[in-house]
Write a structure and sequence with these properties.
single chain, globular, magnesium, dITP/XTP_pyrophosphatase, EC 3.6.1.66, nucleotide metabolism, XTP diphosphatase activity
């Protein structure tokens, strides 16, 4: 199975979550990923997984995820990885904090959709969400993306202050991967019909 992402942090989380299923999880390598032109997480994840599956002839797993901030009408959403046209986690975090300056409502949620695409065209889709609030400055050395700003509901630590295992147990991606795992432990699920435009 090819993990269709160039993000090393995502690869680690996926291997941690699914590694003991006996699946041979391979990194993307030199296979090019398509541009994320979808309007939803589902479309972007399916675009990546289906393209990589067709190119490699292997089952491919991809996710698309993002941070949705209530006070910003759901921004950055599907544009989380390129928010403000910026290329680094630090720059995107600074940009987000700048937009939230003097904003009292810090509620936000992470959303992840994991797609498993088979060479025969079958597609499976799994979704996970994590509610929380955003700090006024980063905290923690772990994680990636917006993790240093995000405190999950019911906790006092940011995702960047948690271990990989702790984060996976509660995270949006962890929940989506757990749903995938549960479905496969109970037998191969029926594919989800999906149309890419």
């Amino acid at each position: 199975m090819v993990v269709a992402t160039g993000n090393a942090g995502k690869v680690r989380e996926i291997q941690e979550a699914l590694g003991d299923l006996g699946w041979d999880l391979q990194p993307l390598g030199n296979v090019p990923l398509p541009e994320e032109t979808g309007a939803t997480y589902e479309e972007n994840a399916a675009l990546k997984a289906c393209t990589v599956s067709m190119m490699t002839g292997e089952v491919a797993l991809a996710d698309d995820s993002g941070l949705e901030v209530a006070a910003l009408n759901g921004e950055p959403g599907v544009f989380s990885a390129r928010y403000g046209g910026l290329n680094s986690d630090l720059d995107r975090n600074v940009h987000l904090l700048d937009k939230l300056r003097k904003v009292a409502d810090r509620r936000a949620k992470f959303v992840s959709v994991v797609i498993l695409a088979h060479p025969d065209g079958q597609v499976e889709s799994y979704r996970g969400e994590l509610q929380g609030t955003l700090l006024e400055g980063p905290r923690g050395e772990g994680g990636f993306g917006y993790d240093p700003l995000f405190v999950p509901d019911g906790d006092t630590r940011t995702l960047a202050e948690m271990t990989v295992t702790e984060k996976r147990q509660i995270s949006h991606r962890g929940k989506a991967l757990a749903a995938l795992r549960a479905a496969h432990e109970q037998g191969l699920p029926a594919p989800v019909a999906m149309t890419l435009e």
